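Key result, reporting period 2: structure in, sequence out.
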């Protein structure tokens, strides 16, 4: 089918094109024209002056709509994909939590089944394994029963079995973490720094061994500390000093205040920042009791004040954000131009995950993953591979 979108304000990598027409054929963008296109189409969407942007790409998400990927059902995978598509997300990296190896393998098996059946939601771009190789001191809401140092026999067997693992988050100060990073890099998997109490020297070494990305920057992550009377810079400062290190931030308005959103943007710039939801099953659901992780072995949490918390309120337990909220907050809370807020939700995450040749920008030849939204970033249409899914 040929799809035509007319009367759009198109956010391309080069400029904002007013009164733009975009043509789509067989799942790809085939034309971007200023003015009204006379090309015939099977289906026409009148954007009515709203913004047209590349579809949002969420590279760190655990759930939504009452589901978690670690429920380990195809229904959960598809339900999460459909929930986030309602808010403009066209591509997601399903993310795990620290867990029993048996549960992790079941999640990965379920991904394989769900990937082929996912026709009505955000597309899956590969798995992100978060844990269990973390610092106990910076575990946050990760279950301490499963936290440990990297085990080569364990991770090598998992990676050999599943070729769709695209990212693995770990703490670089752990014994064996450098070997782990090099191994991931050799298999074209992104090593990311997360849940870590490292000092700057650990991070510089990790960066040289493949850890070029920082998971949920500032959250469960060391900053300046004193050890035996001497001050040490932490992961936060090291990430700022490493110009080529990319970071991701949970811009839900809860995990980071406006001042830190502005600081990250000022130092790293939009091309080095990805916005992530880190959403758990409570995204799109009402406040109240919930579960972080799978229904079988997950932890009890509570959703209140627009965020998930541990029951004792000692730590956040993931967000309940959707991608539209992240873009809106960067514009309204941090005062960032819309085009750059969208970049951090599209082009930057695509580049971090190695899919920029296909996704992330509004260009001829790219996948027709598109979102239409108004001045308040309220989504009216989500298009995945040329098909309207919302």
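The corresponding designed sequence is given below.
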């Amino acid at each position: 089918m040929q799809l035509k979108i007319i009367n759009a304000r198109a956010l391309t990598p080069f400029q904002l094109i007013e009164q733009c027409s975009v043509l789509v054929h067989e799942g790809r963008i085939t034309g971007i024209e200023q003015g009204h296109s006379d090309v015939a189409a099977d289906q026409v969407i009148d954007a009515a002056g709203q913004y047209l942007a590349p579809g949002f790409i969420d590279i760190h998400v655990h759930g939504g709509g009452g589901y978690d990927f670690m429920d380990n059902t195809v229904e959960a995978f598809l339900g999460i994909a459909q929930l986030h598509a309602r808010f403009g997300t066209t591509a997601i990296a399903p993310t795990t939590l620290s867990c029993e190896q048996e549960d992790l393998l079941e999640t990965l098996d379920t991904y394989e089944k769900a990937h082929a059946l996912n026709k009505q939601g955000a597309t899956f771009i590969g798995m992100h394994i978060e844990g269990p190789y973390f610092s106990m001191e910076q575990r946050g809401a990760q279950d301490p029963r499963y936290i440990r140092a990297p085990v080569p026999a364990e991770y090598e067997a998992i990676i050999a079995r599943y070729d769709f693992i695209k990212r693995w988050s770990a703490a670089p100060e752990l014994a064996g973490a450098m070997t782990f990073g090099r191994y991931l890099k050799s298999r074209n998997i992104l090593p990311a720094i997360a849940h870590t109490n490292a000092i700057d020297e650990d991070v510089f070494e990790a960066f040289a061994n493949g850890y070029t990305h920082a998971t949920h920057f500032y959250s469960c992550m060391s900053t300046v500390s004193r050890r035996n009377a001497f001050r040490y810079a932490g992961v936060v400062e090291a990430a700022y000093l490493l110009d080529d290190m990319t970071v991701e931030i949970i811009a839900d308005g809860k995990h980071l205040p406006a001042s830190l959103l502005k600081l990250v943007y000022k130092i790293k710039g939009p091309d080095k920042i990805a916005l992530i939801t880190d959403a758990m099953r409570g995204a799109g659901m009402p406040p109240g009791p919930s579960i972080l992780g799978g229904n079988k072995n997950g932890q009890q949490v509570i959703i209140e004040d627009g965020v998930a918390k541990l029951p004792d309120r000692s730590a956040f337990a993931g967000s309940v954000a959707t991608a539209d909220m992240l873009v809106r907050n960067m514009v309204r809370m941090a005062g960032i131009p819309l085009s750059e807020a969208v970049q951090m939700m599209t082009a930057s995450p695509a580049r971090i995950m190695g899919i920029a040749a296909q996704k992330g920008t509004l260009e001829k030849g790219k996948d027709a993953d598109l979102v239409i939204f108004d001045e308040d970033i309220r989504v009216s249409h989500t298009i995945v591979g040329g098909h309207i899914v919302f």
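The longest helix spans residues 101-117. The chain has two domains: 2-52+377-388, 56-359. This case is discussed further under Risks and Mitigation.
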